[in-house]
Amino acid sequence: MELLIKNLSKTYPNGVRALNDISLTIPHGMFGLLGPNGAGKSTLMRTISTLQDADSGSIMLDDINVLEDKQTIRERLGYLPQDFGLYPRINAEVMLDHIAQMKGIGKKSERKVLVESLLQKVNLFKDRKKGLGTFSGGMRQRFGIAQALVGNPSLIIVDEPTAGLDPSERNRFYNLLSEIGENTIVILSTHIVEDVNTLCSNMAIICQGEVLMQCKPKEGIATVQGKIYKKAINKDELDSYRNDYQVISTKLIEGRLSLRIQADTDPGNGFEATPADLEDVYFSNISKKVDPITI
Ligand code: ADP
């Protein structure tokens, strides 16, 4: 199974070009779509989910034309949007049953088995009688996964799923997603590099509506390995360092600024060579388009 996106473009009526000739090949497994806010991730996710149209280009899921054959795709799609609306007073079991009914599972007994197994899978069975409004962020996201899995989708789209989750909730959510990813295409859209590093076997970095890189995380890291140097400086020295070096990221550690730069040769001046990580790949790429310090 493969999702093939070719030359996809979209300009909103206000003139913003959210997708600028996007081409991506997405195999089965977890695919991370990484980009800063405003990169065009949600626009791309909504287009793949048939919720909005592109101006030009094509999307094929094997032999299904996603942009034309919307009904077929909707039957094979699970979507967990960023702002997942919940009915606060309805309990999890009733809501899932309702969603299953909407997705065309007519038989009550069949739905009962399905709803129970999904609630077990996302570890919400014991909470099934609770109103959705009482759920924590992590529970909401796990419920979101359960509803996205109704109908056994072959393509699952998850938009910014870990924002607002605490570390243990995030871990549980990671485990759940990685189990699902084995037999389906799961596209995980996020600006959190760690999500992609932990979960995804393939990834792309997009920025300002363009694909800057498509790779496996390890291949991405190999492109900057041996070129990353770090140094702790005072905050007021940042501007002068930015003039002299290709600064790709900064982090405040104990009141000092830890600077990471990219350079083909050892810059000296107190810089120390350091192993590259996926965050370096991300910032190195997006710094070609936007200022990585101010985003
Ligand atoms: P991301 O999900 O990566 O944050 P979006 O796809 O939401 O990016 O947005 C990409 C660009 O398109 C942004 O500049 C955003 O302001 C703009 N945009 C998104 N939706 C609309 C819309 N409905 N009308 C006009 N501009 C939009």
Automatic annotation (TrEMBL):
The keyword DNA-binding does not apply. Gene3D superfamilies: P-loop containing nucleotide triphosphate hydrolases. It comes from the Bacteria. One of its GO terms (molecular function) is ATP hydrolysis activity. The keyword Transcription does not apply. Residues 3-233 form the ABC transporter domain. SMART domains: AAA. Pfam families: ABC_tran (PF00005). Keywords: ATP-binding, Nucleotide-binding, Transport. Belongs to the ABC transporter superfamily. This is ABC-type multidrug transport system ATPase subunit. It comes from Algoriphagus chordae. The lineage of its organism: Bacteria, Pseudomonadati, Bacteroidota, Cytophagia, Cytophagales.
